[in-house]
Amino acid sequence: MPLVPHSSYPGPPRYQLNGHFQTILPAMTRKIQALHYQRERLELPDGDFVDLDWLEANSQDLVILSHGLEGSTDRVYMKAAAHFFHQKGMDVLGWNCRSCSGEMNRNLRLYNHGEIGDFGQVITYALQRKSYQKIHLIGYSMGGSILLKYLGVHGKNIPEAIKTGIAFSSPCDLQGSIQTLEKRSNWFYRRKFFNSLRKKITAKAEQFPGKIDLSKFDQIKTWRDFDEFYSAPINGYRNAEDFYFQASAQNFVEGITVPALLCNAMNDPILTPSCSPKHLAKHHPYFYVETPRKGGHVGFAIRNYPGPDYWLEHRALEFIEAHN
Description:
The chain is an alpha/beta fold. The protein has helices spanning 19-29, 76-87, 117-129, 142-154, 174-181, 187-207, 223-234, 240-246, 278-281, 311-322; strands spanning 38-43, 49-55, 61-66, 91-96, 134-140, 162-168, 260-263, 287-290. It has an eight-stranded mixed beta sheet, with helices on both faces. Helix 2 links the parallel strand 3 (61-66) and strand 4. It starts with 18 loop residues before the first helix and ends with a helix.
């Protein structure tokens, strides 16, 4: 059955004592050699754009990487995966969501966990640029939710070249994840995300005078308030409740028609057990759920492993090779 009973993750270094350490330390201390991306701007049908970063190896196989909330292709987990798969002889495409590539996007909208249209445009363009025989989708946190929803919504209508999807540390139940983010112990992540998104919304208000009420920042008491006042209306949702439903990949995975792996650590500090819907995997022919006991959020450093690679890259390659 697609429910993975025993994870192959061997565990983190001993000094990474809990889920917080296993989340924060890899992001701070992991070193990846400089990458020489080839950047390309993809113009979107609505007049906006996303920026694409390529590492090409003259391959017929392509790995497409999707980053997390307020991430980019410059995040260490993205660079690590890009380097790893490029070294394996595959072409790699890392894409930056609107506003995440270092330049604010043009339209009165940003990006979100439920937005799969831009992702579809990226895939379509990649296939127009080159007739890839095999495409593998890998996403981290929000990026994993986006790819799972994309696969579920489009089902049998996805491009034939797409062979696998792999999501790490993904909040498939967004409302549950938001409630966990409110815990006192998660103040660090909450502040980091809030400060970054507040800057973007303020920039949007300057771009579009009179369209965004910045005074509502003073009314925010919870993250749900932030989504109600800003995330939902800016991105075209009726309210926070509608946003959480549309952005929760678990509501769409039933339609997945290619092998797809969701891997969430049980000690991930910003995910709930509901973000790993094992009940959906038990009788699904393509949806795999793996829940290592440890690993944190997009962490998964390997104990006593001397190289620069983490378990994330090895597990993704293992899944790809098993379903090639």
